[in-house]
Write a structure and sequence with these properties.
This protein is mainly alpha-helical and 334 residues long. It has 2 domains: 6-180 and 297-326, Rossmann fold, CATH 3.40.50.620; 204-291, Tyrosyl-Transfer RNA Synthetase, CATH 1.10.240.10. 54% of the residues lie in helices and 7% in strands. The chain has helices at residues 19-32, 44-47, 54-70, 88-97, 102-106, 109-117, 124-139, 152-169, 214-222, 239-252, 256-263, 268-294, 297-326; strands at 6-11, 37-42, 79-82, 144-146, 177-179. The chain has a 3-stranded parallel beta sheet. Helix 3 crosses helix 12 (268-294), helix 4 packs across helix 7 (124-139) and helix 10 packs across helix 12 (268-294). The longest helix has 30 residues, at 297-326. It is globular and about 75 Å long. The model has no long low-confidence stretch (mean pLDDT 92).
Length: 334
């Protein structure tokens, strides 16, 4: 049997997941599970770089797992796990910290952004979490990592650290490549089309959450920023409308030109109503399955135990190799 390439992706449980998370990453995971050896995890270790309410973090971790299953991931085909359940992530993180340079970490765009937003919380984990992200990737010898534009810099760090370790200690890590999903444009905020839709946005009306009820989705889409031009077109001057067209295209798998042709001469209100119904239809199907999974803790725990065991089986072999190469004394081994 031909060996499948490995794909890894982790989602942080640090807020309510949006349709941006769904369209930009999670929806595409389903298409990957037959072609690749997939490891899809919940990045709870990353979440505590900013303060979390413990009970909420546990609840959201469980919710992400239920959503993974609700969108169609098959736990028989992929390893679904929680990052903190696989201690090898932290073991490799520490080794990679020893070859991560302060200057490189300080230039990370997300560190600059988060440090400005959390000046009272400039902790060491916030500074070094890109190294943990690199450990996540390299631990599984990932061939490909699904990334958006905002994560390219972190993948480049993982590639640099893989090369640096391989050069210093001999070939060990696969140097990962980005897996760019080109069919989906970046989904922007409904209230500020210059900013990415974010699960951490303080304005709840700026994002559509996967678990939003139909009436809330309809209200948010109707209230989305457009313009006063009354000209249905797809261009850089009409950023709000362009964003809504991008969302429509991502759900319906059509081109912006097709959407413009369909709604030319129609009101923005008509387009928004149709878009809201498209989103509601797909989210309702996911929510129905989600409700079945989230209420079955025993099933979720069994799936996570199996995912943890499969992940640790692969991760342990990598850590064993890394520890031997850096010179750690290992009991029972020469």
């Amino acid at each position: 049997m031909e060996k499948k390439n490995t794909v890894l992706s982790l989602v942080q449980p640090s807020g309510n997941l949006t349709i941006g998370n769904y369209l930009g990453a999670m929806k595409n995971f389903v298409d990957l599970q037959d072609e690749y050896d997939c490891y899809f995890g919940v990045a709870d270790l990353h979440s505590i770089t900013v303060p979390q309410v413990p009970k909420d973090l546990r609840r959201r971790t469980k919710e992400v797992v239920a959503l993974y299953l609700a969108i169609g991931l098959d736990p028989e085909k992929v390893s679904v796990f929680v990052q903190s359940h696989v201690e090898e992530h932290l073991k490799l993180y520490w080794v990679l910290n020893s070859i991560s340079y302060m200057g490189q970490l300080s230039r990370m765009t997300q560190f600059k952004d988060k440090s400005q937003k959390n000046e009272e919380n400039l902790n060491a984990a916030l500074f070094t979490y890109p190294t943990l992200m690199a450990a996540d990737i390299l631990l599984y010898n990932s061939d490909y990592v699904p990334v958006g534009e905002d994560q390219r810099q972190h993948l480049e760090l993982a590639r640099d650290l893989a090369d640096r370790f391989n050069h210093r200690y001999s070939d060990t890590f696969q140097v990962p490549e980005p897996l760019i999903i080109k069919s989906t444009s970046k989904i922007m905020s409904l209230r500020n089309p210059d900013a990415k839709m974010s699960k951490s946005d303080v304005d709840v009306n700026a994002s559509i959450y996967i678990l939003d009820p139909p009436e809330v989705i309809l209200k948010k889409v109707k209230g989305a920023v457009t313009d006063s031009l009354a000209n249905f077109d797809y261009n850089d001057e009409q950023k709000g409308l362009r964003n809504l067209i991008d969302i429509y295209c991502a759900f319906e798998k059509v081109s912006p030109e097709e959407v413009v042709e369909k709604y030319k001469g129609e009101s923005y209100a008509k387009f928004k109503e149709d878009l809201a119904q498209i989103i509601i239809t797909e989210m309702s199907q996911i929510q129905e399955k989600y409700n079945e999974f989230i209420s079955n803790t025993q099933l979720l725990d069994t799936i996570l135990e199996n995912g943890r065991d499969r992940a640790r089986n692969k991760a342990y072999r990598m850590i064993d190799k890394v520890y031997r190469k850096v010179g750690f004394y290992q009991l029972g081994k020469k």
